[in-house]
Amino acid sequence: MSAADQSLTLDEHRALGYELFETRNRVFTLGVEVSNRYRKSSTPSRRAQRAVQALDGLRCALDSQLALDHPDEFEPSVYYPGPKYEAMAGPPTPTQTTEE
Which of 45, 60, 80, 90 has fewest C-beta within 10 Å? Predict the structure, then answer.
């Protein structure tokens, strides 16, 4: 089996979900700053919006892949966490979930 054929483990999905969540929120915040300084229709503003959309698309695709990779352990909160997740300090550990 090649490296390209290996699925992510549930813990790897959780770590990736955390990083994408943090990155998406940071890019969104930066995009708001740009839009506040320039027109919303400006090239920088539109590119910031597209970056957020691209990250959202990646999260959606990985959420679907998680359901395929681990159907019995699927957790929508891995890629779409709730407010409790935002308060966590750092990525979840293997024993730490958003349900705690």
Answer: 90
